Every structure is written in C-alpha cells, then in structure tokens.
TrEMBL record:
GO terms for molecular function: NAD+ kinase activity. Residues 416-436 are annotated as: Disordered. InterPro entries: ATP-NAD_kinase_N (IPR017438), ATP-NAD_kinase_PpnK-typ_C (IPR017437), NAD/diacylglycerol_kinase_sf (IPR016064), NADK (IPR002504). Coiled coil: none annotated. Its EC number is 2.7.1.23. This is NAD(+) kinase. SUPFAM superfamilies: NAD kinase/diacylglycerol kinase-like (SSF111331). Pfam families: NAD_kinase (PF01513), NAD_kinase_C (PF20143). It comes from the Eukaryota. Keywords: Kinase, NAD, NADP, Transferase. Gene3D superfamilies: Probable inorganic polyphosphate/atp-NAD kinase, domain 1, Probable inorganic polyphosphate/atp-NAD kinase, domain 2. Belongs to the NAD kinase family.
Amino acid sequence: MVAEAGDIILCLERSRDIAQNNNEENIVCSLKEKFKEINNNDACDNGKIAICGSNGVYGKNGVMVCKSNAIQYRTIQDPASQRLTWYKPPLTVLVIKKVRDASVYSPFVKLVQWLIEEKRMVVFVEAAVMEDPHLDQFPEFPSVKDRLMTFRLGKDDLTDKIDFIVCLGGDGTLLYASQLFQQSVPPVMAFHLGSLGFLTPFRFDNFQEQVNNVLEGHAALTLRSRLRCIVIKNSENLNTSETNGNGQEKPSSFLVLNEVVIDRGPSPYLSNIDLFLDGKHITSVQGDGLIVSTPTGSTAYAVAAGASMIHPSVPAIMVTPICPHSLSFRPIVVPAGVELKISVSPESRNTSWVSFDGRNRQELLHGDSLRVTTSIYPVPSICSQDQISDWFDSLAECLHWNVRKRQKHMDELEDLTRSSSNDTLDSIGKENVVKD
C-alpha cells in the first residue's frame, strides 16, 4: 500500500502490550489508541493513517494503512531475518561433488565418513560416484561405501527425501543441485573446492565445526530466486510424438538459478527476437541474443555482457542484450512478478537457440515462444557469515570488484616548502629572475 497525498504516516516502536496481542484486530486498535494518545485526535477513525511498525507481527518494516476503516498492510522483509530453522533434526543429506577433479576425492571421503559414523546420518550420492574407481584407492571408503544411498538423475525422485545438501566443488555443483530439485529445494551448504567459487562461501579446513553449526541451526540463509522457463512449441513445428494426443504441444518446463540465454546459434545473421512483458510488446532485440537472469545470475554471464550486479535478495529479473546492434540498448531490471515472453520475430532471417543454466540447449523456431517468470521455489543457500558479508567477499575475492592501486598522499611538507600563503606572482617572478 502506498501512502497518498494527505495520508498521515506514523512510525513508532511497537510497545510490549501491542506485541503481546495475537489478534490482528487488537493490534490495529492498539495502534489506533497509540496514535490518538500522541496526536490527541480522532484522525485514525475518520481520516487516513499509515502506521509503520518496527517489530512484531508485521515484521521489522511492516506497513499498515488505514483508509476508510479498511486496514491493509505489506511487509518488506529484512534479509537479516532469514535464518535457518530446523523443525526436526535433519537425518538425510545429499552430498554432491565436482566430477573429474582429483582434488575433491579426499574431502569427499572424509565428509561422508564423518557424516555416517559420527553424525549417524543417511547419506545420498549420485550412482555415478559409486562407479568411480579412484575412490577405492582411499582405505576409509570401503567401510562406508555399502552404507551410501544412491540415485540416478532423471530416474529417481529426491523430493521429500533430503533434509539438506552439501556441495563439494565450484559454482557448477550448486547449479546441479538446483537442477535436481524442480520444486522445493533443501538448504544448500557449498564448500569452495572449485575454480571461481562465487556461490561457495565455506572453506573445507574445519568442515566438522561448520557442519555442526548448520545442523544446530546457527546459520543465515540467502533465498536465491529461480526462473521458471516454459517452452511452448508451435503445433506446426511438431511431429506426432511431441503432441499430447489432441494435436497440442507438450510445454517443456525448466527452473534455472543463473540465467536463460537466447542466441543466434550457428547462424551468421543477427538474432531478431521479440520481447513481451505481461503481454505488452516491449522491444525487438537485434544482436547476438538475450540473457534473462536472476539476481544470482547477475554476476555470471550477464555481468560479462555489461549488466549491473544485483544482490541475490533483491526481487528482480534482469534482461541483458548480447552485443546489441544499437548503441542505446542498455540492460534493464524488471519486477520479479512479471511474465516475460520471448519469441523469434516473424521478420527474422534465422531461428534462435535457447539454453537453461548452460543445459538442455534447444532450437526456437518461428512461432515457438519462451515464457519466463520468477519461480515460487527459491534455492535456500546457507551463508558462511551473513547475506551481506558473503556477497561482498565474493565480489572482492572472485571478481576483484573495485580493485585499484591506492592514490598516493600529497607530501604536505614538501608542498609547504615550495610555496606559502604569502607568496605572490611578483615575488615568485623576482625569484625566477634572480635564479636566471
């Protein structure tokens, strides 16, 4: 609710007697009484009032608006309030490790052995991990190998089976964890054992202490929004096997954590892509393509294409052109609640290609469309410190954000010896004549 001209806005600390009320009506009445007490009038009953509470039921930044005896409120969530809370002790954990990396084998064996033998947890790993012959070289692994639970991507459903996830590797392991869960995602704890590590804030040196803190609920969370992408094929572009029996297309749905990319593929021609926002045609993209990204993905492909970096807690969708054939086409940010529709322009000389977090690449033909909205299933990423510190540490360490040599201080003593406030142009000129 936005306060209009003439509205009365009151910001106050909510007292204990108000906070103790569990009934919404009682809270409103108490706030009205508090307002009358301060202003000694009946403006709240007959006029307009917006009340901003700093604590209690409506949250730290809750806003209440009273207009014509109708109470409406909205809340702006404080990122610091996002904390990990276990309603029951976690019993199952999914461990995802980076593939084809010898440096991850030893940490992986240490972690799963500790989780099974010390924490008495049920550990799930991908079936392909059990088939890796390099793990048999570790003497500790055979003792826990038979106690590991396995799954296969695309065949086994992990929904409601996993309490939390541990990733060992780089940012790709977190993207893979996101792909495994196309609905609700368990909390993810990511250890930095890869290359960049922008999304992996934990170091493996003291993993026992850090995992214990997480299991005890002593951790902050970053809710990383995802995009739901639905590819709708034109019925004229389908064969019989791709229809649902009624001659209609079967939409393909994907959840992405970073970005969905639409590009010109192998064609030498410009992409010509129509962009719609909530059904309204916004623009046509003529260039190499388009990136639609989450705030998490703003520091990935999008930033390389000239986009701004957005904190993952900001509810937004970024639209970034790739090498647009226009000097004025700048990246834009739109609200998280909108629906974007992307299609190949009828005048396009070629088709387009689309990929989702670098996977499931497919061709968009004329008449096909891609619809993108913010998913209701974010990825709860566990913080090493807190939301703000983790993000800025990653900017500094991984991207060297705003790194430059420090400007030298002026030597004030040397400056004073060269001139003083009493110097004049005439005196300086005379000194120069004498020197000559």
